[in-house]
Amino acid sequence: MVRGIEYKTRAQMRVMARSGLVTAEALQAAAAVAVAGATTAQIDAAAHAVITARGATSNFLGYHGFPAVSCVSVNEQVVHGIPGDLVIADGDVVSIDCGAVVDGWHSDSAITVIVGQPRGGQDTHLVERTREALRAGVAALATAQRLDEVAAAIEDVADAAGLYPLMGFVGHGIGTAMHQEPDVLNYRTKSRLARVKPGMCLAIEPMFVVGTGESDVLDDDWTVVSADGSRAAHWEHSVAVHEEGIWVLTEPDGGASWLGEYGITPVAP
Q: Whole-angstrom distance between the N-terminal and C-terminal Cα of the chain?
């Protein structure tokens, strides 16, 4: 640990990649259940089944008392939605965030899906541009000197798309704990952010809303909603930085299928 940042060896990153594959599979299973008529609890159960079957454990379940293995956030719910009896409807925008632990090493990832037919082009725009911001942030990390460059890349996508990053909510370091230093912002700041160094593992996670970017927390003390009721999207990957490049820990191919669009070839740790 140096100044609060936990630097990993490449062997440790390889364990984190195993954890990341469990998380990726859990998200796939959860997304498959996110259909009209399903409850958010059923979506969570699908993720739970994968994590259990792979011999991993959940880093969400019990975290500060959180009661599920995933956050399932619907429409104006931006992040930290608690799965329950809420029934998904056609056209809903559903964000699913979960993670796994393998041999003590964590992973964390999130996706957003539109159930059935989109309500309108704005929802498709929101979901696709938020995913684009995640990819742009990951690509920026490959050459960044400081995390300021990642934040700028994410905010640039939001600005071009006419969307707003959720203020006050950021990405984070990840490793032997789910949330570690440093913060990974989704918007520019006057403060200097951490210098990018080999050994860092980071969860990059843009959260965009159609409205103002302001938010409220519901009475459950978890669910974050847009203050004006506008819809939101959330995408996230855990990414390793080492001497030879980067590797997206929560993608089976390390991100190769889309990092090539940015002129980057991921390198396995």
A: 20
- With bands split at pLDDT 50, 70 and 90, how would you rate the model's confidence at 236? very high
142-151 pLDDT tens trace: 999 999 999 9
pTM of the model: 0.96
Structure tokens at 27: 């998200």
State the DSSP H helix or E strand holding residue 184, giving kind and residue range, or none if neither: strand 180-184
Place of tokens 């980067």: 246
Other Cβ atoms within 10 Å of 128 Cβ, number: 15
Residue 267 domain-assigned?
A: no
In a domain, 138, yes or no: yes
Q: How far is CA 196 from CA 6, 8, 125, 173, 245, in A?
A: 12, 13, 31, 11, 12
Angle among Cα 186, 219, 120 to the nearest 5 degrees reads 55
Which among 45, 40, 193, 202 has a CA at the least distance from the CA of 109?
A: 202
Beta bridge partners of 207: 234
Note whether residue 149 is domain-resident: yes
Mean pLDDT of 90-103: 98
Domain that holds residue 80: 10-262
Domain CATH number, residue 79: 3.90.230.10
**Structural domain includes residue 4:** no
Contacts of 77 (CB under 8 A, 6+ apart): 95, 223, 224, 225, 232
Query: Quick one: CA dihedral 26, 31, 34, 40, positive or negative?
Result: positive
Are 253 and 24 within 8 A, CB to CB? Answer: no
Which residue type does 268 have? A
Cis? peptide before 182, omega within 30° of 0: yes
User: For the chain, what is the domain count?
Assistant: 1
